[in-house]
Each structure stands twice: as C-alpha cells, then as structure tokens.
Design brief:
The structure holds two protein chains of two kinds. By secondary structure, chain A is α+β, with helices and mostly antiparallel strands. Chain A has eight helices and seven strands. Chain A is about 35% helix and about 15% strand. A two-stranded antiparallel ribbon of chain B has the order 1-2. Classes of the chains: A alpha+beta, B mainly alpha.
Chain lengths: ~250, ~240
C-alpha cells in the first residue's frame, strides 16, 4: 500500500478531572503517516506537546492489538472511529483525508465519568461482572473436557458472545447510555454452555440489577450498539438476555 | 425477586411497554376492521353508512365490549405513562452530550424517536377522542338525529359524524399526520416488542420483521384513507 503523509486538524477534549468542566483543544498536525495507527498519531502529538513543555493528552490504551478493550475515543461522531468492527488502536490514519478535521471526544455517559481528557471510568463494567459474570466451581482436578458435550452451534454462539472485550462502545453509541449489549454478551456467553447453566437464573437477575444500579439506561433496540461494536456482538444477544431475565424473574422465589 | 422488583427493573419496564404495546396493536386490528365498514359505501350505493353504523352500534351497545374498553383504557394509560417516564429516564443518563452526533449511522431515526412519535400520537389521540369518543358516549353533539339501521335498531349516525368532521381540510391533514406517526411508531415498535419479550430465534425475527413492516404500512394506510375518502367525496 502506498504510504502518504497527510495534514490534520485535531479537536480533542481536554478535562482535568471529573469535577472540572473541560473543553475542546485544537492541534494542527503535519506529516502524519497514513501507516500510523490512530493511537500512534496521538503518541506523536504527545511527544511534541511534551517537548513544548505542555501537558500531553491522556488516553486509555493497553494491548494495541484490538483485544484488551482499553482504548476508547469517540471519533468524528462514532465510537472507535469510521472503520467497521475495528478498535481505535487498530484504526489507521489512511481512514482520513488530507486536511480533515478530526473531533475526538471521550465516551459520554453518566455511568462513565471522565477521569481525565479522553479517559473514562469503566469500573461499572467490572462490578457488573462481579455481580454474576462468572461460574462457581469447587477446586480439585480438572475434569476431562470431553465429559461435557456441547452442541457445536451453541459453542459457536457462546464463543461469538465471549468475543466482547468490554470496551464500552455500546454504551457510548446508545442514545440511552444502555449497557445491554455488554451485559447480554456476558450472560449469553455462559447461558449457552453447560458450565454456566447452574447459576443461569441468578446470573441474569444479579447482573441486570447491578447494571441498573450503575445508572445505565434501558434498551430501546435501536441497534446503534451493534453497529459500532468492534467485536461484532449481535443485537440478538439482547433479546436472549430479555428472555433469560424474564424466565428467571417469573420463576424465582420471593 | 417479587413482582415490583421485576416490573421496576430496566428490562421489566420494557416488558410492560411491549405487552401493552402489543395489546394496543391488537386493538388497532379491531378498530381498523370496524371502521373499514365505511368502505361498503363504495360497493353498495344503498348502504349510506349502514354497515358501519351497525358495527358501531354493536361495539357501543354490547356489555362485554364496554367492559373490555376499561382494559383498553388501562392499556393506553400504562403505555403512555411508562413510555414518557422511560423516555425521561433514558434521556437523563447522559447529562453531557456529544459535540458530533452519531445520527443515522447505525440506527434508524424513527427507532430513536419513539418518545416524540408517541407524544404526537398522544396529542392526536386527545383530538380523536374529542371528535368521536366523547360525542358518542357523553355529549352526543353532532349525533342529535338518530338513524334507523337495517337490523331495525335505532342508533347514533356515526357515519354522518365522520362525514361532517372530515369535511374540513385541516382535520384531514391532522389525521393523515397522525397515521404517518403511527406508521413509524409501529415500524420500530412492532418488532422491538417481540425482541423485548425475548424472541431471539433468527427464523422468527425475520418473520416478525416482515410482519411488522406489513402491519405498519397497511393498517395506518387504511386509517388514513378514511378521512381522505370522505373529503374527496369517494364515500358519503
């Protein structure tokens, strides 16, 4: 692929902490290689800012391989930027045109308060997982894998749901700041396989209760979450969570 | 978990919306069926709204239907109250909004505008009750002259009331706007209701999707044809 250099105008959200108001800051960038990833472009900008004695822009990142779920960034009105099923770290500068203005905002949701600049607090997701996104197994020898037969189609559907990296793009895209796509992926992942079956009901009830407690909105099935999910988590999972929750809710004891 | 916890959770609230919504969908079938009797005028020149007036008389004078009407009003009240409350709650979940909106990238405008479409429908519904339901039940204004039906009963001339009401252009326009809002409200609501109730099997989702599109076009279209047909003089 032909390597090019482009010039950009970057309009980035700057905010000291969750208590301060924050505002946009504009940076001009020249000679941006189209082979750079979006985060490498930020690295270059931050190096420049540090050399100029200015404060660099804070952003979340870790593996930069699209699997850890740390990178966020709402780029030009879309979580993780313009590419389909791509995390911000895997987004490359060839997605942009010479002279373009790129607006970068943090995830916006009351449940995800800004910690600094583009970093938001996503610990509500951790607490939802702690509420039931696990299986309880007594310790001892690992059983033979073949002793638990799993239907291939169910194993595949479970695996597809387990691909969720918990980045929070679904919440960022949803007009209601709903976390239903995340919760539904985590519930589906375990509901479809025998290991998750014993705690199936309490899992759905407890995870949804925690989701509501954290201040996420209700799902209205608009599909915006599915469209921006970097891992292609399907909206069907939300319908499955609705079924899991309804059945558990109707059959649970007082 | 008790009933209150179930129905007050975010999913529980949506389940209430979907059950009342589907109940109102079933009401639309009855409503459009009864009202479509006005079109008998197209096929029978001696009808003069007799078929419709007989149907309206049956609906108004049958005790079972009068009792069911209470359920219908409950359905309306719960759907409207819960819908507005959910809309306000959902809007409050993002105090600081985005500078660049995502817009239609990923979702349809009408799926994001159910609160707005529902509010337009509520305003339309109030006007609609004022035009037909209140006169037929309480004030009888515009219904002073009774009509002798072909089955021998004497009843209100609801056909005449429709004809008089829809003689004004602005009312026809408001009714057509109401029907368009209903079409878009159903276009999202019909399918969404089934998803909320947990329908995730792709075979049935495809079916419900197509059924939803058909229902959202056909039913509001028949409704919209009623004021238009009176105004254009096709019937009456």
């Amino acid at each position: 692929m032909e390597q090019k250099s482009i010039s950009l105008k970057l309009k980035v959200w700057k905010q000291k902490n969750s208590q301060t108001k924050g505002s946009f800051e504009t940076h001009s960038m020249n000679d941006v290689s189209t082979e750079m990833s979006f985060l490498e472009m930020f690295d270059v900008l931050n190096e420049k800012l540090i050399q100029e004695g200015k404060e660099p822009i804070a952003f979340d990142h870790d593996c930069r391989e699209g699997i850890c779920g740390m990178c966020s960034m709402y780029i030009n009105g879309r979580p993780h930027g313009p590419w389909h099923e791509t995390t911000t770290c895997q987004l490359h500068m060839r997605a942009f045109n010479n002279g373009e203005t790129i607006v970068v905002e943090p995830w916006r949701a009351n449940a995800f308060p800004v910690i600094k600049d583009l970093i938001v607090d996503r610990t509500p997701f951790d607490r939802i997982i702690q509420a039931g996104g696990f299986i309880s197994v007594n310790t001892g020898n690992a059983v033979d894998a073949n002793s638990l037969p799993v239907e291939k189609s169910k194993a595949d559907a479970s695996f597809a749901a387990a691909a969720c990296i918990g980045c929070g793009a679904c919440v960022a895209a949803c007009k209601n700041s709903s976390a239903m796509l995340f919760v539904s992926a985590k519930v589906t992942h375990l509901a479809l396989i025998p290991q998750g079956d014993p705690e199936r009901k309490t899992r759905a009830l407890d995870m949804v209760a925690q989701m509501d407690k954290e201040g996420f909105g209700a799902c209205t099935n608009t599909g915006a979450c599915e469209a921006v999910c970097p891992k292609g988590i399907s909206l069907e999972n939300i319908a499955r969570l609705n079924k899991e929750y309804l059945l558990a809710g109707l059959t649970s004891e007082l | 978990m008790n009933w209150s916890q179930l129905l007050r959770s975010s999913i529980g609230k949506k389940i209430v919306m979907s059950i009342t919504g589907l109940f109102l969908v079933s009401f639309l079938v009855v409503h459009v069926g009864v009202n479509a009797c006005i079109f008998n005028d197209l096929f029978d020149t001696n009808d003069n709204g007799d078929m419709f007036n007989r149907a309206a008389d049956f609906m108004g004078s049958t005790v079972v239907i009068r009792i069911m009407e209470i359920g219908l009003f409950l359905g309306f009240i719960i759907h409207i109250y819960q819908g507005l409350a959910l809309e306000l709650q959902n809007r409050s979940k993002r105090k600081k909004g985005y500078d660049v909106q995502m817009g239609n990238r990923g979702s349809k405008w009408y799926s994001r505008s159910m609160g707005l479409l529902g509010t337009i429908l509520l305003l339309f519904l109030i006007l609609h009750w004022w035009h037909f339901w209140i006169p037929s039940r309480f004030t009888h204004s515009g219904l002073e002259v009774p009509v002798l039906l072909s089955n021998g009963r004497i009843s209100h001339d609801m056909f005449l009331l429709m004809k008089v009401t829809f003689s004004e252009w602005w009312i026809v326009l408001v009714y057509v706007t109401g029907c368009i809002s209903l079409a878009y409200h159903l276009l999202h609501g019909f399918e969404s209701a089934f998803r909320t109730l947990g329908l995730h099997n792709s075979r049935y989702l495809v079916m419900v999707h197509k059924l939803g599109i058909g229902f959202s076009i056909i039913v509001p279209l028949i409704f919209a044809l009623m004021p238009v047909s009176f105004k254009m003089g096709w019937i009456g």
